[in-house]
Automatic annotation (TrEMBL):
The keyword ATP-binding applies. Residues 261-271 have a biased composition (Gly residues). SMART domains: AAA, PepX_C. The chain crosses the membrane at residues 20-38, 611-634. InterPro entries: AAA+_ATPase, AB_hydrolase_fold, ABC_transporter-like_ATP-bd, ABC_transporter-like_CS, Galactose-bd-like_sf, P-loop_NTPase, Xaa-Pro-like_dom, Xaa-Pro_dipept_C. GO terms for molecular function: ATP binding; ATP hydrolysis activity; dipeptidyl-peptidase activity. Keywords: ATP-binding, Hydrolase, Membrane, Nucleotide-binding, Transmembrane, Transmembrane helix, Transport. PROSITE patterns: ABC_TRANSPORTER_1, ABC_TRANSPORTER_2. PANTHER family: ABC TRANSPORTER, ATP-BINDING PROTEIN (PTHR43335). Residues 232-276 are annotated as: Disordered. Residues 236-255 have a biased composition (Low complexity). This is ABC-2 type transport system ATP-binding protein.
Length: 956
């Protein structure tokens, strides 16, 4: 066949291709250069690790040794002073927990002092929970130590230029240290608390902490983590926000020994002075308060006062240091409301405050890289301006983020950040009201809180936003109230509120209120495992007499899509909380007011990762456009087709003429294929493996170009992209469905991609053909192979195309489904429609197809009606009244042989003897003959045509 491009055209195409490739290379190199220029210059640094003894305590005279490491940039000296950062670790961690963050900061030109807090790792002392007299005074002495270093920039004698950064336990220290010591120039507290009593004894109707519900899960982890030298849960381990349980290593990497605090300390033992060895290295008053609360499930005022002593809530009016508050949305320990309270209290003083919410937290770690990068950027920007004195003022705009999906490049989660000028708090700037309804329902409180619902499991709450079924409510122990499907999506940013009513025979009830996002398939998601515990008192015995109570649900950031429902669940138990031990039954009803969802309209933040993704997308698009141009030029002449119709084939669904396909290496897959498919026919394309069947179908569907020959569909010459392809439905090379969509959604997405009206799809007929029933609403990733095959056949039949081309349509189907497929194809080939089916199941082809085309070694060896291909049979099937007597008679006839595969009758090879003579012999012997049928199968004809040991051409 003559090449579709002349030599000059080929040279032009190759020249254009070289230009496209050269331009692509230049773009890639420029992108790499810009990335390199944008990277912070990684300066070298040196470290000094040493124990530092400070004096703290109420009188400031109690010595404690702290294990420290000091990071100093190369070049820093008395003549080249640098600002400093005090970097605090999370609870249960050590100075090693924040090593990578320290290295990032020292690379930006800061001296960084890290230390292991008292009571952890190699440091001495006991844990006082960021007590102003102990941990906070330790921080003040470390400020003194920094001020004495000659390399540190100072504002005045004894006043170092310093910022304080810390996560969780370290974040609380940053806030309290700034309130206690005016030398702190800026702070970045992350995922930390405002009121420690409220954090561990929350109550979502506004009651005091003494009425709060004890968060036993997190409290148990905290006090378990304080029982040895360095292990336990860490909060965010510094500026990156990485939740890392840490164990302090020795130089050899093994767990470190207990600090030498005296004879009373050691693994599994309380230090000298501890009230109870079960509290490990906690101070005696903290230990006693914990044991009282954990035993009774309630806090007395003395315990609340102790926790508030270690809370920023009472000291916010003294914080004058510019504050960047970073709080995690996936945090069942310190939720977003804790940062909100800190922000409002500090801003009331006129102190610069900025709030950033991110998708990580104690339950979500750093969050996606796009989000952790944003937090790093905000931290660096804040410190550079307020500590280093560089860059413009960061401003006080509010930023938050939401999980946007999965990254196609690394399959990790991706978060989209948003900003808005004014901080809205947890009430939002807008609101959406949704009615939830349902009857009043009895709910049982189980004895001793067991079994308990699983919702806010420490460290795992974020799983509730990703996996259906992670949160589990116990039957009989929860009431449900649901909304109608939402008519439009809503972006929830803040703390929803809802009303409930409850009745109790004891007058009291502890309940857990949750808000689920329920998709159209019924999958329910509890955002970040967050629940609202409430303790109700003074309740009546009947719910009709109950007064509605407003519950403030945990603040969330979530998009609830249109068509989803909201489910309000009120449960009596939760694995993470202490509930009443006495069994009882409450009655719960929804309140009169609607569910209120706060909203915030934010502007998307273009992150560095997003920018480079757009650059990469643009680059790939440019390359793709260039390749498309090359392909279009290469096929230009081939595609220059007019709209004329070949008159001979105008009414023929398919005509294949002299088809040949030869590959570049000289391999001939199809050498001469010539056949037609007419209206009303079901044509089977048969051949051994490698005969050329698949290549023929690929050419037919425009998936590969033929070397020679033509294909006509209803008289139109077929080329890739030809409009007449819309009249063909095909299943070739297997289906390609999106696993996260249901079967029906996949069909609709496919049809939308065709650009044709939805009314032309005939979904109902296609779904009836698929026979998937309710499974059509399930996600296709849960489909079996056979279910995917049936859905693919339904997809091929969308629009009821006039020509249906199927490659192995019965693959993966069971016998009943195969039989049904046979009937479907026979019914389909009516009203001028036709079917071409490739299959290796010869018995099915024989029963299904009206015509067959047999291909062997790239050539057609037979074609025509199936009956003609099967032909005259040398064997005959006899149905007789007495098979055994008939066998004896036939065995006496010369040349006549009874074959073994009778299937209930007698299959006889007459070997030239007239059938009438055989019948006469049987009748003379008194044997009744009911039926005489020629016995030959398509398989016999197929093997005769291609040979039993035939191998194809190696079809590709």
């Amino acid at each position: 066949m003559r090449s579709p491009l002349s030599g000059a055209a080929v040279r032009r195409v190759l020249s254009n291709r070289r230009r496209v490739v050269a331009a692509s290379v230049v773009v890639v190199l420029l992108a790499a250069l810009l990335v390199w220029l944008a990277r912070p210059e990684g300066a070298g640094f040196r470290t000094e690790s040493a124990p530092v003894t400070v004096r703290s305590g109420p009188a400031g005279d109690e010595p404690v040794t702290l294990d420290t490491t000091f990071y100093l940039p190369d070049g820093a000296s008395a003549g080249a002073k640098v600002p400093a950062v005090l970097l605090a670790h999370g609870f249960g961690g050590t100075k090693d927990s924040v090593r990578s963050d320290a290295e990032d900061l020292v690379a930006r030109g800061y001296a960084v002092l890290t230390w292991t807090a008292r009571g952890f790792g190699r440091s001495g002392g006991q844990i006082h929970l960021d007590n102003p007299d102990y941990e906070i005074r330790d921080g003040q002495r470390l400020l003194d130590w920094l001020a004495a270093r000659p390399e540190i920039r100072t504002d005045s004698a004894g006043d170092p230029r310093v910022g304080v950064v810390g996560g969780s336990y370290g974040g609380g220290l940053a806030l309290l240290l700034a309130a206690q010591d005016p030398r702190v120039d800026a702070i970045v507290p992350m995922i930390t608390w405002n009121d420690l009593s409220r954090a561990f004894l929350p109550e979502s109707t506004g009651k005091p902490a003494t009425e709060g519900v004890f968060k036993k899960g997190w409290a148990g982890i905290f006090f378990g983590g304080g029982g040895n030298a360095g292990s336990g849960p860490a909060g965010l381990s510094g500026s990156t926000g990485a939740a890392q349980p840490e164990q302090a290593p020795t130089a050899a990497g093994a767990p470190s020994p207990q600090p030498g605090a005296g004879p009373g300390s050691g693994p599994g033992r309380g230090p000298a002075g501890a009230a109870d060895p079960s509290c490990g290295r906690f101070a005696a008053d903290v230990c006693a308060a914990y044991l009282r609360i954990a035993t009774t499930g309630r806090a007395d005022q003395a315990a609340v006062d102790l926790l508030r002593r270690s809370s920023p809530a009472g000291a916010l009016d003294r914080i004058k240091s510019p504050t960047l508050l970073v709080q995690g949305e996936a945090d069942t320990l310190f939720p977003l409301t804790e940062a909100d309270a800190n922000a409002r209290g500090i801003a009331a003083n006129g102190t610069p405050v900025r709030v950033a919410w991110f998708t990580g937290g104690h339950d979500g770690g750093e969050g996606p890289k796009t989000d952790s990068d944003r937090v790093k950027f905000l931290t660096a920007q804040w410190l550079d301006h307020y500590v280093k004195g560089e860059g413009a003022a960061p401003g006080d705009d509010f930023t938050f983020s939401r999980i946007a999906g999965f990254d196609a490049l690394d399959r990790g989660l991706v978060a989209t950040g948003y900003r808005t000028t004014d901080y809205p708090g947890v009430a939002g700037t807008g609101r959406r009201e949704v009615t939830v309804s349902g009857p009043a329902q009895p709910v049982a409180n189980p004895p001793n809180g067991n079994p308990a619902a699983i919702s806010s499991v420490p460290f795992a709450g974020a799983l509730g936003s990703l996996l259906d079924g992670v949160a589990g409510d116990i039957p009989g122990q929860h009431a449900r109230f649901e909304s109608a499907p939402l008519d439009r999506a809503v972006d929830v940013v803040g703390a929803p509120t809802v009303q409930v009513r409850a009745a109790s025979p004891t007058g009291e009830a502890v309940l857990f209120v949750k808000l689920y996002d329920v998709d159209p398939n019924g999958a329910a998601t509890l955002p970040d495992g967050l629940v609202a515990p409430v303790r109700l008192t003074g309740l009546p015995r009947t719910v009709e007499a109950a007064t509605p109570v407003t519950v403030t649900l945990p603040a969330i950031v979530r998009r609830v899509e249109a068509g989803h429902r909201l489910r309000l669940v009120v449960a009596t138990s939760d694995q993470a909380y202490t509930t009443p031990a006495e069994p009882t039954v409450y009655t719960v009803a929804a309140g009169d007011a609607p569910l209120v969802l706060p909203t915030v309209t934010g502007e998307p933040i273009p992150t560095g990762a997003a920018v480079w993704r757009w650059v990469l997308a643009g680059l790939l698009a440019a390359i793709a456009v260039g390749l498309v141009v090359v392909v279009l030029l290469a096929r230009r002449r081939h595609r220059r087709q007019d709209s004329s119709i070949h008159p001979e084939y105008a009414g023929v669904p398919l005509a294949v003429r002299d088809l040949r396909k030869e590959y570049a290496d000289g391999f001939v897959a199809v050498s001469h294929v010539d056949f037609e498919v007419h209206p009303g026919q079901v044509v089977g394309l048969l051949g051994p493996n490698g005969a050329g069947k698949t290549t023929t179908l690929r050419v037919l569907m425009g998936l590969t170009q033929p070397t020679a020959g033509e294909i006509y569909v209803f008289g139109h010459r077929l080329v890739p992209g030809s409009p007449v392809l819309s009249r063909i439905g095909a299943l070739v090379e297997g289906p390609g469905f999106l696993p996260h969509l249901s079967g029906l959604e996949n069909l609709k997405a496919y049809w939308r991609a065709t650009g044709r009206p939805e009314g032309d799809a005939h979904f109902e007929q296609a779904l009836e053909i698929a026979g998937l029933g309710d499974s059509v609403h399930r996600k296709t990733r849960k489909y079996s192979h056979g279910m995917r095959q049936r859905l693919a056949i339904a997809q091929a039949m969308l629009g009821l195309p006039e020509l249906l081309v199927l490659d192995e349509p019965t693959d993966g189907l069971d016998p009943p489904q195969i039989a049904e497929m046979r009937r479907v194809l026979q019914r389909y080939a009516t009203d001028g429609r036709a079917v071409l089916v490739s299959s290796h199941l010869l018995a099915e082809v024989e029963q299904t197809c009206t015509h067959a085309v047999v291909v062997n070694k790239g050539r057609i060896v037979a074609s025509g009606p199936v009956a003609e291909i099967v032909g005259e049979s040398p064997s005959v099937l006899f149905d007789v009244t007495d098979p055994e007597a008939a066998r004896a008679v036939l065995d006496r006839l010369d040349g006549v042989r009874v074959l073994p595969d009778g299937d209930g009758g007698l299959v006889v090879d007459t070997n030239g003897t007239a059938r009438s003579e055989v019948v006469a012999e049987l009748v003379r012997a008194g044997i009744g003959v009911d039926r005489v049928v020629p016995r030959r199968r398509l398989e016999d004809a197929f093997l005769a045509l291609v040979g039993e040991n035939s191998r194809g051409s190696g079809d590709r």
